[in-house]
Each structure stands twice: as structure tokens, then as C-alpha cells.
Amino acid sequence: MQVNGLFHQPGRRSIRPSSAGFTLLELLVVVVIIGLLASYVGPKYFSQIGKSEVAVAKAQITAFEKALDTYRIDVGRFPTTEEGMAALLENPGSNPKWNGPYLKKAIPLDPWGRPYHYQSPAKDKDFEVSSYGKDGLAGGTGDDADISN
């Protein structure tokens, strides 16, 4: 049977297109919720990044300490400030007691891309290995604080 140009079968409902999709208001509510979540989670996530860089610097300084202690056992002294930590990779002179290299790889830069500072003798200790932190300047607080052995 044909009614108004459409075929109609008795006992069946006519199928009409549904209006699928979201309204603009629903989309705005979802965007606001995502924005609120991002503003809450974002600062907590990015604060952890600074902590991980400090942890990496401390771990690298600890590895340098162990290599420098091994150097001292072999040679009988720590490298001078002039010799620097390069003495851990290459014999700084013709020292027959040098039994290196004391590091497996080249001396890495600190997590902020700057070289570590080495001084021997240092104030109140035999040597000091340090990084000036995120700002690259002596002193500071937080992520900018100096990190040393």
C-alpha cells in the first residue's frame, strides 16, 4: 500500500531518520570538564619533571664520586682542578699507576645541558662535583638550587 508516496506495510512502524549527534551545549560542557581536569592535573605533572632532573643530577654526581674514589685508590690522590674529571677518561700525565678509564662513557652534561663543575681540593672536603641547577648560576632555591656531593 502506498500512502503519500511512501510504502507502508501494515503492522510495522514507519522508519524516519533520527537526529543523531550532540548539541552545542553538550559539547561545551565536555570541553569545560576537560579544561578543569587539565588545569588540575597539569601543574602536578609538570612539577614532577623538575624533581626528576634533580634526581638525575644527584645520581650522576654519585657515579662521579665512585669513579673518583677508584681513581684515588689507584693513583694515590684525586685529580686536581686543572686536570678535572677528564682524568677519569684519559691519563692526565704519564702516571704509571693510572688504571682507567674510570667511566664507561664520556662525562655527561647535567640535566640542563651544562657541564658539571669539579674542584679539588674543595672547601671542607677533598673534592666537589656540582651542578648549578636549572638557572645555571651559583646559589638559588628550588629547581635553581645547586646540587653537589
From TrEMBL:
Region span, Disordered: 126-149
Predominant cellular place of this UniProt entry's protein: membrane
Compartments (UniProt record): Cell inner membrane
Domain of life (superkingdom): Bacteria
InterPro entries, sorted: Bac_GSPG_pilin, N_methyl_site, Pilin-like, T2SS_protein-GspG_C, Type2_sec_GspG
UniProt entry keywords in alphabetical sequence: Cell inner membrane, Cell membrane, Membrane, Methylation, Transmembrane, Transmembrane helix
Residue span, Type II secretion system protein GspG C-terminal domain: 45-149
NCBIfam families for this protein: IV_pilin_GFxxxE (TIGR02532), typeII_sec_gspG (TIGR01710)
UniProt protein name: Type II secretion system core protein G
Gene: gspG
